[in-house]
Amino acid sequence: MTMTALKAAAIFAEGGIETGRLLLIEDGRFAGFVTAAEAHSRGIAVQEFPHSFLLPGLFDSHIHGALGHDTMDASPEAIDAIGRYLLAQGTTAWMPTTVTASPEAIQQALRNLEHYVPAADAARAIGCFVEGPYLTVEHRGAHPTEYLRELSSVEFAELLASGPMKALAVAPEKPGALSFIRQAVQQGVHISLAHSSASYEAAAAAIESGADAAVHTYCGMSPMHHRSPNLLGAALTRDDVYAELIADGIHVSKPAMDILLRCKPADKVILVSDAIAASGLADGDYVLGVEAVHVKDGIPRTESGSLAGSTTTLLAEVRRLICELGREPLAVVHMASLNPSRRFGLEQEIGSIRYGKRADFLVVDRAYGLQAVWKDGRPVIQK
Q: Could you count the other beta carbons within 10 Å of the beta carbon of residue 123?
């Protein structure tokens, strides 16, 4: 068994920020903390990062693609390329995300993930978030109208049989939504409320039926009014539902981000990128599903002007909330790591620096700029 001790200016452990003790890694997993004297007495090799912070690897649970590749490409090569890009940006785990499309296209994307094994130099692909087709036309965003459809238990069963569907987006005002949500949750699928005109009452009923997250909060949903708080009001005020947040400074203004962060318990916020195939590439014309998207100044929009995902990264969002909004650093880091891991029942394996978990972590400078990425206890990216 090989054991290494890591010394850093600060280590963002699950239980708090460590500044004195050294982090142990053994056989690809975190193995606790020791003092420098203990490491010396046990003859453990020490690697030092005196001016750096160690953060847990980040987990993006809502991302479509990067580098010209998309989950809907339904090829191992696309998933590999996206995973390699993400790892180089500090995201060590991700959930490939589909868009509204034909039943066959979505099922093919799921089948592609059924037996996929990530390369050592790629982020872990964990299941699939099926975003669409059960969305509302009014708030469809970049989802094509011609493929939006009503809830179907038959199609749900076909999706579930096709591959590792971990989460499914549903507009809760759809006819039959509550029984559909209960059925999905009973079969282990997380329901995300999305692209919706739902009232507060309809959203609350969906949450009470088992839905556990609001997708890219503020976006793709009716705005909150003081006499009609809608899905947004439920997402902000109910502590039994996670709220996704795209903190790129484009989808949601800083004051609105601050409102969300004041309303929600810190452990119920999940940072997501909602990044598309244009991520990591220059401005220009791209495709999201079947929708034409033009990217200008890094901002993707459809021909109608709707935002169409992003080109941001989770680490950039973490940096924004800490350095620009002044939020508590460890809580913010966990919004992009531990919180999504807990939502999907993965917190015993990934999501934080804690004894026994996979040793996936980032080395960052004091401004949260990426310096290195470690996966399974070994360095895989050096900046």
A: 30
- Which CATH number applies to 58-343: 3.40.50.720, 3.30.70.1050, 1.20.1740.10, 3.20.20.140? 3.20.20.140
pTM over 0.70: yes
Question: What is the pairing mode between strands 165-170 and 190-193?
Answer: parallel
Give me 356's structure tokens: 């026994």
- Which residue in 60, 212, 274, 360 is the catalytic one? 274
What would the pLDDT profile of 321-374 be if each residue is shown by its tens digit? 999 999 999 999 999 999 999 999 999 999 999 999 999 999 999 999 999 999
Q: Residue 133: is the preceding peptide bond cis (ω within 30°)? A: yes
Cα–Cα dist 44/55, whole Å = 22
**Residues whose CB falls within 8 Å of the CB of residue 190, separated by 6 or more in sequence, listed in order:** 166, 167, 168, 212, 213, 343, 344
- Domain ranges, ordered by start, for the chain: 3-56+352-382, 58-343
Contact (CB, 8 A) for 166 and 128: yes
Tell me: domain 3-56+352-382, CATH 3.30.830.10, correct?
no
Phi, psi (deg, nearest 5) at residue 134: -90, 60
Asked whether the CA dihedral 137, 141, 145, 150 is positive or negative, the reply is negative
- Check if 274 is active-site: yes
